[in-house]
Specification:
alpha+beta; Beta-Lactamase; Arc Repressor Mutant, subunit A; 3 domains; 44% helix
Length: 360
């Protein structure tokens, strides 16, 4: 993006161009990219001068939403030179003339591209305006992609943080059968090498017989998670030299998770039987980033309540409960309550009893 703005500055004979706005991950200045100006030049704007930007205020009043904005149309030169905004900010950086365009992307989110010139130069005109107008659809598309990637990156980071809070060790397995993600508990467990070990990225058991079974479960789950099998997942125990055997659940994941580590297509949960484990719906919430309402609905369904009873317990309408359930289905990649319950059954937790719910 910086190169694009540099080319734009050259074409428009600008001494500075910037793309900024209320965008995720842009830092304190709100700038996504800039050319011919330093990022620190924008910090005073974010901290103070943005609130007294007379050009922005006047342009909002006189220009339609998607029109190119010219500073000379917003305020007279004498009026501009009498403002604090010009004397204490623009003048310091040799900025005087300005041209800009809003780039909305929806839901109150958007960017603003602006270019400046020195007082020694002529104001921006229609030629520069046509350049910005031609760039508009491309900038809008780029901003939408940027926001989407930011959301995905944030979602993965949030999921990792959630998995790190779990008492269970969680290993994410990729299509090669290698552990490409370990939460904090998994790192500690693998480091001890008691009952379970990690060699060249592959999980194994220290007990030879258990090792063969564990590798079979992982291979079968990877095949299913990759779309080449129907293995539902299974539990087993790993003997260890000290303490009770480790409880292990290996399960395929039919929707790829944690993509920055490579596509995770299977999960291995390892728990110490002496450690209190989380409720199944809370484990599901951590894995699929369910909201508190979605987690509560899932917990109530697991307890055996019908959806209408769940709505009453949550003090919401039946239609609202259906909408929540659809959101849970979408996030967990299942299409029915029975499939959701099967997914819950495959997860390690403290609530070991099977659910009472028997619906379809």
């Amino acid at each position: 993006m910086g190169r694009i703005l540099e080319c734009l500055a050259e074409t428009m004979r600008s001494n500075g161009t910037v793309l900024f706005g209320n965008l995720p991950g842009t830092g304190p200045t709100g700038a996504l990219a800039q050319a011919r100006m330093d990022g620190s030049d924008l910090l005073p704007y974010a901290e103070h001068y943005g609130e007294i930007n007379i050009l922005s205020q006047r342009c909002d009043e006189i220009f339609p939403e998607l029109a190119v904005r010219y500073s000379q149309a917003a305020i007279t030169n004498s009026g501009f030179e009498a403002t604090e905004f010009y004397n204490d900010y623009f003048r310091h950086y040799d900025w005087y003339h300005a041209v800009g365009l809003k780039v909305p992307v929806g839901n109150g989110v958007g960017g603003y591209i602006a270019a400046t010139r020195s007082k020694r130069d002529i104001p921006f005109g229609s030629a520069e305006g046509r350049i910005l107008s031609a760039l508009f659809p491309h900038l809008q598309r780029a901003l939408k992609l940027y926001i989407r990637f930011s959301e995905l990156r944030s979602g993965s980071q949030g999921m990792e943080a959630a998995l790190d809070t779990m008492d269970q060790a969680v290993f994410g397995i990729d299509t090669r059968g290698c552990a490409v993600f370990l939460n904090t508990t998994a790192e500690r467990l693998a480091g001890r090498g008691d009952g379970l070990r990690l060699v060249n990225g592959r999980i194994g058991a220290t007990d030879p017989q258990a090792d063969s079974e564990l590798r079979f479960l992982i291979q079968s789950s990877v095949a299913t998670g990759s779309g080449a099998g129907t293995f539902p997942g299974r539990a087993m125990f790993l003997p260890r030299a000290h303490g009770k055997s480790l409880a292990v659940v290996v399960t395929p994941v039919t929707r790829a998770l944690l993509r920055q580590h490579g596509a995770v297509v299977a999960l291995v949960f390892v728990a110490d039987p002496d450690t209190k484990r989380a409720k199944r719906a809370n484990v599901l919430s951590a894995l699929y980033r369910l909201s508190p309402s979605e987690t509560r609905l899932t917990n109530l369904l697991w307890q055996g309540l019908e959806l209408r009873e769940t709505a009453e317990q949550m003090r919401i309408t039946y239609n609202s409960a259906r909408s929540l359930l659809k959101q849970v289905f979408q996030k967990t990649d299942v299409s029915s309550q029975s499939a959701l319950i099967r997914l819950l059954v495959s997860l390690p937790s403290e609530d070991q009893d099977a659910p009472k719910w028997t619906g379809g």
